[in-house]
Design brief:
2 domains; Rieske Iron-sulfur Protein; elongated; 325 residues; alpha+beta; seven-stranded antiparallel β-sheet; Naphthalene 1,2-dioxygenase Alpha Subunit, Chain A, domain 1; binds fe (ii) ion; binds FE2/S2 (inorganic) cluster; six-stranded antiparallel β-sheet
């Protein structure tokens, strides 16, 4: 993963009451909203090391909870309460921050690339719900897990798919310079509760990964998107991924609102099952000190996800076999 890429670290709604703790590439951060916009600093005061996230926001600056030094979004110390004149050379470590889509994005390593927002999701005039969670898994494992249909009838048996009702289908894989997707035909529609909730059983399902860390799942019926989800993945550390998710169901009626709330509640159970298996995977990889890199024929997206995370263009697999889902 490139540290010059922009990753989300906090939801703007979580910054209304004051600064928030965050973490990116293993570095603890404090994120806040001041009168000049968003600030992102290493969460350690350059004086004695107090966590700035325990301080408070004063106009554009954040105030350290220990001796009250104040720092601007560029890291510059702008005030020391014990001195009439503040020395000009004192700085906290600062990172570029930008707001988009209700999230604060941070760039850990400066580059000449300004923040470029990811492509907008297709507008489906929808009822939406947002969530965030941190899972003990690498970003690549997390992305693959969200987009992988082959574990669902094992880990989420009966809920998303049922092991006894597997269907043989021919998926299609497509890719571009910085994205890869697999499209499943309608016959692959899950037979579990979620599809029944949407009211039909004929969805074409698209699972997509795009740089620098976005997973998307879309359900289409007769070419029209009925359900869409986007998961912004952010590498809190090598083995922890922060996820900011948004679920959207077509329609803005009360029924659509109710459905999206039910889907979110169900997804929470799905996420907790994934959290458990991914936690076991991560513990085991650490126990053995190595990560098996086997890519099976049905792992359509993994090589592409790994390529995109290296900053390379993904390649379409030579052979996409039929699989049982
Ligand atoms: S530790 Fe922050 S001002 Fe002293
Ligand atoms: Fe899962």
């Amino acid at each position: 993963m490139k540290k010059s890429a922009w990753y989300p670290v906090a939801a703007t709604r979580d910054l209304r009451a004051g600064p928030a703790k965050a973490q990116l590439f293993g570095t603890p951060l404090v994120i806040w909203r001041g009168e000049d916009g968003y600030g992102a600093l290493a969460d350690i005061c350059p004086h004695r090391g107090a966590p700035l996230s325990e301080g408070c926001v004063d106009k554009a600056a954040i105030t350290c909870p220990y001796h009250g030094w104040r720092f601007g979004p560029d890291g510059q110390c702008v005030a020391m309460p014990a001195l009439a004149e503040t020395p000009s050379r004192i700085r906290a470590q600062a990172f570029a921050a930008a707001e988009h889509d209700g999230l604060v994005f941070v760039q850990m390593e400066a580059s000449r690339h300004d923040f470029a927002p990811p492509p907008p999701q297709q507008d489906i005039a929808s009822a939406t719900r947002e969530d965030s969670v941190t899972i003990r898994a690498s970003l690549a494992d997390m992305a693959e897990n969200i987009l992988d249909t082959t574990h669902t009838s094992v880990v989420h048996a009966g809920y998303l798919r049922q092991a006894t009702r597997r269907q043989l289908v021919q998926p299609e894989v497509r890719c571009g310079a910085d994205w890869i997707e697999v499209v499943y035909p309608e016959s692959a529609t899950p037979s579990g509760l979620v599809s029944r909730l949407f009211g039909t059983d004929c969805y074409e399902i698209t699972d997509r990964f795009r740089a620098p860390g976005i997973a998307e799942v879309e359900y289409r019926c007769n070419g029209r998107i009925e359900f869409a989800s986007r998961f912004y993945l952010s590498p809190a550390s090598d083995n922890e991924t922060r996820i900011f998710s948004r679920l959207s169901i077509r329609g803005t009626s009360l029924l659509s609102q109710l459905k999206v709330s039910i889907v979110r509640a169900m997804l929470r159970r799905v996420v907790s099952e994934d959290e458990e298996i991914l936690g076991l995977v991560t513990d085991n990889v650490e126990r053995f000190g190595r990560r098996p890199g086997l890519i099976a024929p049905q792992d359509f997206l993994r090589a592409g996800i790994d390529a995109i995370l290296r900053g390379e263009a993904p390649e379409r697999p030579d052979h996409v076999p039929q699989i049982y889902v």
